[in-house]
């Protein structure tokens, strides 16, 4: 079972005694920088000259420098730029400015796990990854609560990297909720698998296949949209609140019976065998290598897939129907 750490296990003064650079000011970057600052930590934000986020970070009272200057000033460098550009930012701005005893921090393990970034042996390499989007991380912090984080140490050059990582997690409110210890390998592989097989890939494919089945059988697309996409939120909310049991308690007995007898026919042994293949490609690094090649080639297939799904009847139907539901637009 996982090891859990709370506020009492973490010493905030460790991170308060360091100089932190947060590179990037997107979803995670803004939440980390603002909450660390409010926790009494010396923070600067590193953004390239033309970055649209510069003005926003400054308005919110943070000092902004270039990524290279931030990395040079700081002794804890948190890299929160998008994963596919991290290696470039690291090579250009971070590596030339790393000193003995510095700590390199990440919010996701991809670049370390697949060695797109290879830090020198004289720095700590840590991960603090909140299990929620940055805006929730920041809002919870401001309300005196926190989003659970996972923390990992890949390289412990100074002998106290884990204490440093826990201290950082406390600075963004993570230990108020609870911090789980993991490894870069476990975090990266499970994150990629989850988003591909279940959360994004699996769910999108399931919704599309269900919608297409109904429409091809002659049912109206609007009705198919409600049944296969719109109502999914209700089901997922129930699972989120109380697992499969609460979902089954809430739906009709007919729906529950259909769940038991038909679900395993849709997601069957063949599906699971394919999931194992997907996991294998994540573990052997071929997924990550192929994705970086696609990214560096200018995203040709990515753009093609995106366009094809934007034009799908599911999406055009959804657009029309959502405009009828005033409350849907208002959601965050
Ligand atoms: P984001 O896309 O929201 O923000 C990226 C930031 O980097 C922006 O401020 C952008 O201006 C800046 N940026 C882009 N290109 C740059 C460049 N070449 N040089 C310097 N700055 C550049 O990213 P995010 O979602 O906050 O993700 C950051 C990290 O956090 C990733 O490793 C991601 O896997 C991880 N993470 C994200 C979430 C999430 O919910 N979004 C959750 C956990 C972990
Ligand atoms: Mg994830
Ligand atoms: Mg991910
Ligand atoms: Mg129904
Ligand atoms: Mg029931």
UniProtKB/TrEMBL annotation:
Mg(2+) 1 binds at residues 191, 195. Substrate binds at residue 252. It is an enzyme of class 1 (oxidoreductase). GO terms for biological process: isoleucine biosynthetic process; L-valine biosynthetic process. Its EC number is 1.1.1.86. One of its GO terms (cellular component) is cytosol. Pathway: Amino-acid biosynthesis; L-isoleucine biosynthesis; L-isoleucine from 2-oxobutanoate: step 2/4; Amino-acid biosynthesis; L-valine biosynthesis; L-valine from pyruvate: step 2/4. Residues 2-182 form the KARI N-terminal Rossmann domain. InterPro entries: 6-PGluconate_DH-like_C_sf (IPR008927), KARI (IPR013023), KARI_C (IPR000506), KARI_N (IPR013116), KARI_prok (IPR014359), NAD(P)-bd_dom_sf (IPR036291). Keywords: Amino-acid biosynthesis, Branched-chain amino acid biosynthesis, Isomerase, Magnesium, Metal-binding, NADP, Oxidoreductase. Pfam families: KARI_C, KARI_N. Gene3D superfamilies: 6.10.240.10, NAD(P)-binding Rossmann-like Domain. Its cofactor is Mg(2+). Binds 2 magnesium ions per subunit. It catalyses: (2R)-2,3-dihydroxy-3-methylbutanoate + NADP(+) = (2S)-2-acetolactate + NADPH + H(+); (2R,3R)-2,3-dihydroxy-3-methylpentanoate + NADP(+) = (S)-2-ethyl-2-hydroxy-3-oxobutanoate + NADPH + H(+). Belongs to the ketol-acid reductoisomerase family. NCBIfam families: ilvC, PRK05479.1, PRK13403.1. HAMAP family: IlvC. Involved in the biosynthesis of branched-chain amino acids (BCAA). Catalyzes an alkyl-migration followed by a ketol-acid reduction of (S)-2-acetolactate (S2AL) to yield (R)-2,3-dihydroxy-isovalerate. In the isomerase reaction, S2AL is rearranged via a Mg-dependent methyl migration to produce 3-hydroxy-3-methyl-2-ketobutyrate (HMKB). In the reductase reaction, this 2-ketoacid undergoes a metal-dependent reduction by NADPH to yield (R)-2,3-dihydroxy-isovalerate. This is Ketol-acid reductoisomerase (NADP(+)). It comes from Streptomyces boncukensis.
